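Data deposition worksheet. Section B asks for the primary sequence of the deposited chain exactly as it was used as input, without tags or linkers unless they were present during the calculation. Section C holds the resulting structure in token form. Section D is free text for depositor observations; keep each observation to a single sentence. Incomplete worksheets are returned to the depositor.
Section A, Depositor: J.P.
Section B:
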Amino acid sequence: MAKLLYSATMSLDGFIAGPGGDMSWLTEHLGPNPLVDELVPRIGALLVGNRTFRGDDPYKGVPDKEGKAFGGGWSGPQIILTHRPGAPAADLTYAGDLETAVALAKAAAGEKYVNVLGADVARQCLEAALLDEVLVIVAPVMLGDGTRLLDRPGGTDVKLERLTHGAVPHATNLWFRVL
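Section C:
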């Protein structure tokens, strides 16, 4: 059965997007990363939050990469968690609640990962005890403000077990299992 993996590139001070959802900061930190290259073919479906789906694109203005998951490195079914469905499109399914979205994503992923994209969707999955793993790629930059990797004011500790860690010249990879 599919596992839910929350993956994100994060600034050293804990932000995955800058103020107003700005993703332009990320562009200079995207580069060859063997861990990501190994992960991408293991992803069977994406579970994406509405803000992430409709938000800023770090590949904006880059031909053949803009608007595509992993800059065009992945294609397949995307389940968008939203109360405002958009126009129908190939490989896009809209779901209005978390339970339905997760079930659709897991069915679409088969034995592969469901890659969770979006801080709010990841928080919801975590609070519903549905999140299995977290991959954080830490970029060598501090943004000072924006969207946090996880924002749970008053929340309790989330226990994690490190599965792997490593580095490439432009980032540090940290992969955890949620306990």
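Section D:
The first strand starts at residue 4 and ends at 11.
The CA atoms of residues 25 and 166 lie 22 Å apart.
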